[in-house]
Amino acid sequence: MPGDLKEGRIVVVGASLTGLRAAEKLREEGFTGSLTIVGDEPHPPYDRPPLSKQVLFGEVPANATALPMRRDPEAEWRLGVRATGLDTVGKRVLLADGEPVPYDRVLIATGTRARPWPNAQEAALDGVLTLRTCDDAALLAERLAAGPRRVLVIGGGFTGSEIASACRERGLDVTVAERGPAPLVGALGGTLAKLAAAMHRNHGVDLRCEVTVTALRGHGHFTGAELSDGSRVDADVCVVAMGAVRNVEWLAESGLAAGPRGIACDAGCRAFNMYGIVTDDVFVAGDVSRFPHPLFDYQLLSLEHWHNAVEQAEVAAHNMIHPEPLRRPHLAVPAFWSSQFGLNIKSVGVPTFSDHVVIAQGSLEARRLAVVYGYRGRVTAAVTVDMAKSLEYYQDLIETAAQFPPVAGASDRPPAAEVPIPSDVPDPSVLYHGPTVALTGHLPDRRLAMMRPAV
Amino acid sequence: MTADTLLERITDYASRPDPWPLYAELREAGPVVPQADGSHLVGTYHEIVALLHNPRISADPRSSSRTTTESAEALTPPFLRQDDPEHHRLRTLAMRPFGPPHTPGRIDAMRGEISRITEDLISSLRDRDQIDIVDDVAYPLPVTVICRLLGVPREDEPMFREWTDVLVASADIGPGQDTAQRDEAMGQARQEMGQYLVNLAEQRRGRPTDDLLSAFVNEPDPALRLGDALAETAILLLIAGHETTVNLITNGVLTLLRQPDQLDHLRRDPDLMPRAVEELLRYEPPVHMRERIPLADVNFAGTILPQGSSVILALASGSRDPKRFHEPDRFDPARPDNEHLGFGSGVHLCYGAPLARIEAQTALGALLPHLATATLTQDPPPYRTNAMLRGPRHLTLRLRT
C-alpha cells in the first residue's frame, strides 16, 4: 500500500505558489505517477508580493516575477484553463475547456481573487482596477506611469497601503478611503494602526478614515468618487483594495465544506466534506484553506500569506503520498511581511487572536518597535516595524505559550513595556480591508462559516 | 573529566588543532553547561540561535558584573559590542555607504578590484617552491581591500599593515601571559590608527573620494554622522573584517588540501565556489565562540543564566550540531539548507559578510589551479593561540611544478 501512494494520478488545481511548491515536493519525496497542474491564468507560476511593490515603483516589469522552480515537477501543465467542478464520486476534475481530468488524489490550491467593486456598472468604468494578478499589476503600473492627477485607493489594508505607498514613491497624489478607524487596524489592531495612519499622512497620503465610498463616477472613464461624508474625490484611477474572495464557487456541487472563508481541512490538509467528515483523497492548501491550529485554540484559520502557502503546500504534498502513520501536521506559526512608506513590517502568530498588546522593544516615535500581542495571559503574536531580527525571539514565545506580558529586560525596552493596552482589533465586518489572518471558528460546516460581505 | 571544565579544555592551546571532539562533548552535556568559573557554555544550534535573538542577552561588556580592567578598551565600545538602540543607530550609519538599502552596489562593484589584488598577490609567488598561505595571500588580501574601501591612500597601506600586525598579534596572547603588555601595545596601535583615520577623514571633508571615510564625514544630515564614533567604527571595520577573513581563506585552503576529492570537485565545477564558501563557514569557521551577558536573570532551557554573568556561545559547535545538520562532520560543498552560524545570527549578524564572501570566493577560486600540485608541509599547521577566533598562524605549502 505505501508504495501505491507514490504512484497513480495526482491533479493539482491552482498553478500559483502553493500549486508549484506542492508539485515540487511531490517529486522530491518520490512521487512517480502522473501529475497534472491546472491553472486559470495563462502564466506559469509567478510571485505576487512584488506586484504591489517593485512592479508599481516601475523597477520590475509585471511579467518578470516568475517563481524559480526548485526542480522540474515533470507535470502536465493545463494553464489558462478554469476548473469548473469536482466530482468526488467519479474522482474527476471538471474543466471549462476539455475533458475532465481523472485523479486518485487531488490538491485544491485555487487561492483567492480580488474582491470586486460591488456595483458592476461602476466597476466597469475605465480606470477602476483591482490588484491580484500580474495582468492587474501590469495595467496598474501602466496607469501610474501615465501620471494620473490622483489615485483613489478604496481600502487601507496591506495591499491598499502598499499601493498608496507606491503612488507616493512615484510622486502621485493619492487618496485612501477606509471604512474602519485607521489603515491596517483589521490585521494589526489599534496601536500599530495609529502608526500606519501617521505614516500615510507623513508621506502625503490624503487618508480618509471612517468613510465609505458610495459611488464611483464617470462616463466610460472613471473621474471621481462620492464619499459617505458628502465629499467628492476627483481622480483618474481607482484601485479597489477591499480584500480577497476565496475561489470556491467551482466547488459548490462538490459536497466539500467550502464556503466564503475557504475550504475546511484537518491539520494534515485533508478536506472536510459538508457533513464534517474528513476525506482521504481531497487535499487543500494555501489561501483557499481553513485549518485548525493548536496554538489558537484549534480554531480554523484562514491565512493569505506567502509563507503559509509554501509550508502548507509541502505538508499537503507529503501527506498525499504517505500513509496515515507517516503523515505530518501543518503547525507552522503564521507569518507575513509588508513594506510600505519605507518601513518593513513583519508579523508572527495571529495578531487578531489577542486582547492586549505591549510595546516590548523600541518605540512608536522611533518608528522602530516590537509589539507583542497576548490573549488571556499568553503570547499569541508579535509584529515588528523595522526590527525584523527580533521576531524570532517572539516566535519562540508564541510556540511555547509564554506568559504575557513577556518578561522585561531588553536593552531597548521602553519604560511602559509592562503596561498592556487593549489590542483593539475591530470586527472585520466594519472594515474595507479584510484581515489577512482570520479566525473562523471551530466548525467545518460552511453555513456556520458564512461571512457577510463588507459592503 | 567533567563537563564543567569544558571551556578550559577548549581554550587550552593543545586543543586548537582539533576542538571538534570537545564540542561534541559539549553538545552531549548541554544544552546549557555550567562552568566551574560561573560562566555557562552553549554549543547546540537551536539554543545558540535562540540566545543570539534574545533581547535580554547583551553583547556589551559593560553589562558584565565583573569589573573589567581592560584599559585598552575605549570607554564606548564599537557597535559590535553594544546593544540596541545605540548599536542599531551606529550600525545603520556605518551601513549607509557600505550596503543596502542606501548603497546596494558597493561591495559587488569591488569584485574586479578584489580579483586584481588577488592576482597580483598570487602572481608574485610564481617562482616560489614554498609559500605561506597566511603571510602571502590570506593576510595581505583583506587588509588591502579594507584600506581601499575605507579610502586609505596606497602609500599608507604599509603603515596600516604594521598597526594591524600589532593589533592582531596583541589580541593573540594566550591566557596566563602578560596582559599588561598586550594592553599597552594594543592601546598604542589603536590610538595611532584611530588618530590617523580621523585625520584622514578630516582631509576628506568637503573633498570626498569614493570611499567609506569620505561618505562618513560628508553626510549632509548631522543626525546621520558617526561623530565621536568615527574612529572606533573605522577600526572595528578594519579589525573585525580582517582577522576573520584571514582565517576563512586559510581554513579553506587547509580543508581543500585535506580533501583532494572535494578539491577536484571544485576544480571541475568552479560554479560551486559560493556554496563551498558557505560550507567552509559552517565546517571550519573563523569565529568559534562569542561571549554574551544576560541583562536580567534569564531562565533558559531549564537553567538560570544570572544577570551580569558570562555566557559563551560556541558558534562553531552549533554549526556542527547533528540535530540541525545531516552528517555535520562531513565537508560537503553542495550541502543543501546550510544555514550555518559562521556569520552569527540576530542583530549582530556579520556586517561585513558580503565582503568576506567575495574575498574568500575570489581568493580560493584563484588558488584552486595551484592547489592540485600543492602539499602541506605540516598537518596540523601551527595555530594562533586565540580560541575564539581560531585559525592557523602559518600554512606552508610546497608547490610542485
UniProtKB/TrEMBL annotation, chain A:
Coiled coil: none annotated. SUPFAM superfamilies: FAD/NAD(P)-binding domain, FAD/NAD-linked reductases, dimerisation (C-terminal) domain. It holds the Pfam family Reductase_C. Keywords: FAD, Flavoprotein, Oxidoreductase. Residues 9-313 form the FAD/NAD(P)-binding domain. Its cofactor is FAD. Residues 336-408 form the Reductase C-terminal domain. GO terms for cellular component: cytoplasm. InterPro entries: FAD-oxidoreductase/Apoptosis, FAD/NAD-bd_sf, FAD/NAD-binding_dom, FAD/NAD-linked_Rdtase_dimer_sf, Reductase_C. One of its GO terms (molecular function) is oxidoreductase activity, acting on NAD(P)H. Transmembrane segments: none annotated. PANTHER family: APOPTOSIS-INDUCING FACTOR 1, RIESKE DOMAIN-CONTAINING PROTEIN-RELATED. This is Pyridine nucleotide-disulfide oxidoreductase.
TrEMBL record, chain B:
Residues 62-76 have a biased composition (Low complexity). GO terms for molecular function: heme binding; iron ion binding; monooxygenase activity; oxidoreductase activity, acting on paired donors, with incorporation or reduction of molecular oxygen. Pfam families: p450. InterPro entries: Cyt_P450 (IPR001128), Cyt_P450_B (IPR002397), Cyt_P450_sf (IPR036396). Gene3D superfamilies: Cytochrome P450. Residues 56-85 are annotated as: Disordered. Coiled coil: none annotated. Keywords: Heme, Iron, Metal-binding, Monooxygenase, Oxidoreductase. It comes from the Bacteria. Belongs to the cytochrome P450 family. This is Cytochrome P450. It comes from Streptomyces brasiliensis.
